[in-house]
Prior knowledge:
By secondary structure, this protein is mainly α. It contains three helices and no strands. Helix 2 (37-169) runs antiparallel to helix 3.
Amino acid sequence: MASNTHSAETAEGARKAAEAHGAAEAAGMPQLDFSTFANQIFWLLVTLVVIYFVLTKIALPRIEAVLSERRGTITNDLAAAEELKQKAVEAEEAYNKALADARAEANKIVAEARADIQADVDAAAAKADAEIAAKAAESEAAIAEIRAGAVDSVKTVAKDAAKEILASMGYKADAKTVTAAVTSRMKG
Protein backbone atom coordinates (compact mmCIF):
# COMPACT_ATOMS: atom_id res chain seq x y z
CA MET A 1 0.00 0.00 0.00
CA ALA A 2 2.70 2.27 0.66
CA SER A 3 3.83 1.91 -2.85
CA ASN A 4 0.39 2.89 -4.09
CA THR A 5 0.44 6.07 -2.00
CA HIS A 6 3.85 6.92 -3.26
CA SER A 7 2.80 6.36 -6.86
CA ALA A 8 -0.28 8.48 -6.39
CA GLU A 9 1.81 11.32 -4.98
CA THR A 10 4.25 11.03 -7.80
CA ALA A 11 1.50 11.12 -10.38
CA GLU A 12 -0.08 14.13 -8.66
CA GLY A 13 3.25 15.96 -8.64
CA ALA A 14 3.82 15.22 -12.29
CA ARG A 15 0.37 16.54 -13.19
CA LYS A 16 0.95 19.80 -11.29
CA ALA A 17 4.34 20.28 -12.93
CA ALA A 18 2.77 19.77 -16.35
CA GLU A 19 0.07 22.37 -15.60
CA ALA A 20 2.67 24.91 -14.41
CA HIS A 21 4.75 24.26 -17.47
CA GLY A 22 1.75 24.69 -19.72
CA ALA A 23 0.80 27.98 -18.01
CA ALA A 24 4.35 29.28 -18.41
CA GLU A 25 4.35 28.37 -22.06
CA ALA A 26 1.04 30.16 -22.54
CA ALA A 27 2.28 33.33 -20.82
CA GLY A 28 5.68 33.47 -22.66
CA MET A 29 8.70 35.43 -21.35
CA PRO A 30 7.82 37.55 -18.30
CA GLN A 31 9.90 40.50 -19.60
CA LEU A 32 7.68 40.69 -22.67
CA ASP A 33 4.44 40.51 -20.77
CA PHE A 34 2.62 43.81 -21.54
CA SER A 35 0.88 43.81 -18.23
CA THR A 36 4.22 44.30 -16.40
CA PHE A 37 5.71 46.98 -18.73
CA ALA A 38 4.81 49.91 -16.49
CA ASN A 39 6.56 48.30 -13.54
CA GLN A 40 9.58 47.42 -15.65
CA ILE A 41 9.84 50.92 -17.09
CA PHE A 42 9.52 52.49 -13.61
CA TRP A 43 12.32 50.35 -12.20
CA LEU A 44 14.41 50.93 -15.30
CA LEU A 45 14.09 54.71 -14.84
CA VAL A 46 14.81 54.44 -11.10
CA THR A 47 17.89 52.31 -11.82
CA LEU A 48 19.13 54.69 -14.53
CA VAL A 49 18.64 57.72 -12.25
CA VAL A 50 20.51 55.99 -9.43
CA ILE A 51 23.33 54.99 -11.80
CA TYR A 52 23.43 58.56 -13.19
CA PHE A 53 23.71 60.09 -9.69
CA VAL A 54 26.29 57.53 -8.58
CA LEU A 55 28.37 58.21 -11.69
CA THR A 56 28.06 62.01 -11.59
CA LYS A 57 28.50 62.45 -7.84
CA ILE A 58 30.98 59.68 -6.97
CA ALA A 59 32.70 57.91 -9.86
CA LEU A 60 33.21 60.68 -12.42
CA PRO A 61 34.65 63.22 -9.92
CA ARG A 62 37.13 60.62 -8.76
CA ILE A 63 38.05 59.79 -12.36
CA GLU A 64 38.35 63.53 -13.14
CA ALA A 65 40.58 63.99 -10.09
CA VAL A 66 42.81 61.11 -11.18
CA LEU A 67 42.97 62.47 -14.74
CA SER A 68 43.76 65.98 -13.46
CA GLU A 69 46.46 64.60 -11.20
CA ARG A 70 47.93 62.65 -14.12
CA ARG A 71 47.79 65.73 -16.35
CA GLY A 72 49.53 67.74 -13.65
CA THR A 73 52.14 65.04 -13.14
CA ILE A 74 52.74 64.76 -16.88
CA THR A 75 52.98 68.55 -17.22
CA ASN A 76 55.42 68.73 -14.29
CA ASP A 77 57.43 65.84 -15.68
CA LEU A 78 57.58 67.47 -19.11
CA ALA A 79 58.67 70.76 -17.55
CA ALA A 80 61.31 68.96 -15.48
CA ALA A 81 62.44 67.05 -18.57
CA GLU A 82 62.70 70.29 -20.53
CA GLU A 83 64.67 71.87 -17.70
CA LEU A 84 66.97 68.85 -17.51
CA LYS A 85 67.36 68.93 -21.28
CA GLN A 86 68.36 72.59 -21.08
CA LYS A 87 70.82 71.78 -18.29
CA ALA A 88 72.21 68.93 -20.40
CA VAL A 89 72.68 71.29 -23.36
CA GLU A 90 74.41 73.81 -21.08
CA ALA A 91 76.58 71.05 -19.59
CA GLU A 92 77.49 69.86 -23.08
CA GLU A 93 78.41 73.41 -24.09
CA ALA A 94 80.50 73.81 -20.93
CA TYR A 95 82.14 70.44 -21.61
CA ASN A 96 82.93 71.41 -25.21
CA LYS A 97 84.32 74.77 -24.05
CA ALA A 98 86.42 73.09 -21.37
CA LEU A 99 87.62 70.55 -23.92
CA ALA A 100 88.56 73.32 -26.37
CA ASP A 101 90.34 75.23 -23.58
CA ALA A 102 92.18 72.09 -22.53
CA ARG A 103 93.24 71.42 -26.11
CA ALA A 104 94.43 75.02 -26.51
CA GLU A 105 96.32 74.78 -23.21
CA ALA A 106 97.82 71.45 -24.27
CA ASN A 107 98.89 72.94 -27.61
CA LYS A 108 100.39 75.91 -25.77
CA ILE A 109 102.29 73.59 -23.40
CA VAL A 110 103.49 71.49 -26.34
CA ALA A 111 104.65 74.63 -28.18
CA GLU A 112 106.48 75.86 -25.06
CA ALA A 113 108.04 72.44 -24.56
CA ARG A 114 109.12 72.37 -28.21
CA ALA A 115 110.60 75.86 -27.88
CA ASP A 116 112.44 74.84 -24.68
CA ILE A 117 113.68 71.64 -26.28
CA GLN A 118 114.74 73.53 -29.42
CA ALA A 119 116.57 76.07 -27.25
CA ASP A 120 118.27 73.23 -25.36
CA VAL A 121 119.13 71.51 -28.65
CA ASP A 122 120.48 74.77 -30.09
CA ALA A 123 122.54 75.40 -26.94
CA ALA A 124 123.81 71.82 -26.97
CA ALA A 125 124.61 72.09 -30.69
CA ALA A 126 126.45 75.39 -30.14
CA LYS A 127 128.37 73.86 -27.23
CA ALA A 128 129.12 70.77 -29.30
CA ASP A 129 130.22 72.98 -32.24
CA ALA A 130 132.48 74.97 -29.90
CA GLU A 131 133.91 71.76 -28.46
CA ILE A 132 134.38 70.33 -31.95
CA ALA A 133 136.03 73.56 -33.12
CA ALA A 134 138.33 73.52 -30.06
CA LYS A 135 139.19 69.85 -30.62
CA ALA A 136 139.69 70.52 -34.32
CA ALA A 137 142.03 73.40 -33.45
CA GLU A 138 143.87 71.16 -30.99
CA SER A 139 144.01 68.42 -33.59
CA GLU A 140 145.29 70.83 -36.24
CA ALA A 141 147.92 72.09 -33.80
CA ALA A 142 148.86 68.45 -32.99
CA ILE A 143 148.94 67.63 -36.68
CA ALA A 144 151.09 70.73 -37.33
CA GLU A 145 153.44 69.61 -34.55
CA ILE A 146 153.49 66.09 -35.95
CA ARG A 147 154.18 67.48 -39.44
CA ALA A 148 156.90 69.72 -38.11
CA GLY A 149 158.30 66.83 -36.14
CA ALA A 150 157.94 64.56 -39.15
CA VAL A 151 159.72 67.06 -41.42
CA ASP A 152 162.50 67.38 -38.87
CA SER A 153 162.60 63.60 -38.52
CA VAL A 154 162.67 63.21 -42.30
CA LYS A 155 165.46 65.77 -42.51
CA THR A 156 167.40 63.97 -39.81
CA VAL A 157 166.84 60.58 -41.42
CA ALA A 158 167.65 62.00 -44.85
CA LYS A 159 170.86 63.57 -43.52
CA ASP A 160 171.90 60.36 -41.79
CA ALA A 161 170.98 58.28 -44.82
CA ALA A 162 172.89 60.66 -47.13
CA LYS A 163 175.97 60.51 -44.86
CA GLU A 164 175.80 56.74 -44.73
CA ILE A 165 175.31 56.43 -48.47
CA LEU A 166 178.22 58.78 -49.15
CA ALA A 167 180.34 56.97 -46.58
CA SER A 168 179.56 53.62 -48.17
CA MET A 169 180.66 55.01 -51.53
CA GLY A 170 183.78 56.22 -50.06
CA TYR A 171 183.09 59.91 -49.91
CA LYS A 172 183.29 62.03 -46.90
CA ALA A 173 180.84 64.93 -46.69
CA ASP A 174 180.60 67.48 -44.01
CA ALA A 175 177.35 67.98 -42.11
CA LYS A 176 176.78 71.48 -43.50
CA THR A 177 176.87 70.36 -47.11
CA VAL A 178 174.58 67.38 -46.48
CA THR A 179 172.11 69.60 -44.55
CA ALA A 180 172.07 72.20 -47.35
CA ALA A 181 171.50 69.48 -50.00
CA VAL A 182 168.66 67.80 -48.03
CA THR A 183 167.02 71.17 -47.29
CA SER A 184 167.12 72.25 -50.94
CA ARG A 185 165.70 68.91 -52.04
CA MET A 186 162.88 69.07 -49.52
CA LYS A 187 161.79 72.55 -50.59
CA GLY A 188 161.14 71.35 -54.00
